Amino acid sequence: MRPLLPLALLALPLLAACSRPDDALPAAYRAIDVPRERLADPAARLRGRELFQETCALCHGPRGDGHGPRAGSLGTPPTDLTRASWQRSASPRFVYWRVREGVPGTDMPSWKAFDPDATWDLVAYVLSLGGGEDRAAGAASKLPG
Ligand code: HEC
Fold first, then answer.
1. Which of the residues 56, 63, 114, 125 could staple to 48 if both were Cys, CB 3.0 to 4.6 A apart?
2. 37-84 residue pLDDT tens
3. Structure confidence by residue, pLDDT tens digits, 11-38
C-alpha cells in the first residue's frame, strides 16, 4: 500500500484543478458566457447599483449587508453579500444564476423581469461589494456613509 500514498498525493492537485466552482450549477448556467468587459466596467456597476437600490435593498439593505427594512420579517435572513467568505465562493455565473432563478424555499425571488444585460449589471455590482481593489474602482465606494 505504501507506494500508493505519494501517488495519491500527486493526483490531488490535479483533481482540484479539474473541478471548477461552476460545476454544480444547472447546465444552462454552467455554459453561459461571462461578459468580462461588462463586469469590469464601472458604468455597469453603477447601473447595477441603481437597480440594487430599487429592488434588492428592501431585503439585502442599501449596502448589501443583509440589513434591509424587510429583513427581520423573512423566514430566511437575506444573505450578507459583503461577507468575505460569501464573496470568495461567489462566481459571476453563480450570482447570475441566483438572481435569475431565485432561491426556492426562501423569500429570494427569481428576477426574470431583468434582461440578461441588466442582470449582469447587478452581478457586477454585487461582486464589487466585498471590498478590495474592486471597491476602490467600483460603485460600492460611492455608497452613502
Ligand atoms: C424579498 C426579499 C428579497 C429581495 C427583494 C431580494 N432578495 Fe436576494 N435573497 C433573499 C433571501 C432571503 C436570501 C437568502 C437565501 C438563502 O439563504 O438561501 C437571498 C439570497 C441572495 C443571494 C445569495 C444566494 C446564495 O445562494 O448565496 C444573492 C446573490 C441575492 N440574494 C441577490 C439579490 C439581488 C441582486 C436582488 C435584487 C434584484 C435580491 N437578491 C432581492 C431575499 C431577497
1. 125
2. 999 999 999 999 999 999 999 999 999 999 999 999 999 999 999 999
3. 666 555 555 679 999 999 999 999 999 9
What atom in ligand 1 is closest to the CA of residue 111?
38
Which residue among 79, 80, 85, 94 is best mutated to probe the pocket of ligand 1, counting the most ligand atoms within 8 A of its Cβ?
79
7 within a domain of the structure (yes/no): no
Q: What is the CATH number of the domain that holds 69?
A: 1.10.760.10
Residue with cell 435572513: 77
Of all atoms in ligand 1, which is nearest to the CA of residue 55?
37
Asked whether residue 5 is domain-assigned, the answer is: no
Measure the CA dihedral 66/100/45/135, to 10°: 40
The total number of structural domains in the chain stands at 1
